[in-house]
Amino acid sequence: MKVYRKAKYVFLSVLLIAVYIPVAAQNAQNTMEKTARQFRKNCPARFSLEITNFDGLKPIGTSHASLTVDTRRFKLESSEMTVWFDGKTQWSHYAGSDEVNVSTPTTSELQTINPMALIETYKHGYALSQTTTTYRGKACTQVSMKATSKSAPITTILVVIDENYNPLSIRVKQKSGNWLRVRISSRQSRIKASDNDFRYNPKENASLQIIDLR
Predict the structure, then answer these.
(1) 102-116 average pLDDT score
(2) Strands ordered across the beta sheet of 45-55
(3) pTM confidence score
(4) What is the CATH number that goes with domain 2-212?
C-alpha cells in the first residue's frame, strides 16, 4: 500500500509539472502579446534610455540615448552615434567620423541597435516563462525568453513589465556570455513624427561622406 501511495504521489507530481509548464509558458506568451500590443498602440513614441554594457556580469560602461520609434522605424541618438532606420534602409553615423554608412540590416542586427525590436522576439525561436519581481519598489512581471537554438546570437532576454504592460527594463545575454541592459527612464507616447524623422538627410551635413554598404 505504501509503495502504491508513493507511486501515486510521484505520478501526480509529474502530472502537475506537465500541466504547469505549458500554462506558465502561455501566461508569458499572453503577457508579451499585451506588451507588444501596448507598444504598437503608443507609437510613435520617444524613450529615454540608460544602456549598460557588461563583460560577463561586470558593468564596463553606461551611456544614455534617445530613441524615437514608430513600430519598426526608429532613430537612435546618443553621444556615440546616431542611427536612422526607415523600415528598410539604415544610416549610421559615429561621433567623430566623417562618414555615414548605409546598409540593409538583418533582423538580428536591428535587435542589437533598437531594444524595442526585442519585444517582438517572443514569437519565434524562444521558450517563454514569467515570474513576479520588484523593480524600483514596484511589483512587476519579468518575462524570460530562452533561445531554443544553440546558434542564436542572443541566448536570453529578460523583460521587466509594469502593470500597464509597459517595458521598464530589457536585459540581453549574447552568445559570448556578455550582457546588455537597457533601462527606460522615461517615455512619451503618440508623439508627432514624420517619415523624414527616420531617414538621414544629407543636406543637414554636406561634409559627411556617404558609404553605401548594401
Answers:
(1) 90
(2) 126-135, 138-147, 154-161, 167-174, 179-189, 45-55, 58-70, 73-78, 81-85, 90-94, 99-103, 209-212
(3) 0.85
(4) 2.50.20.10
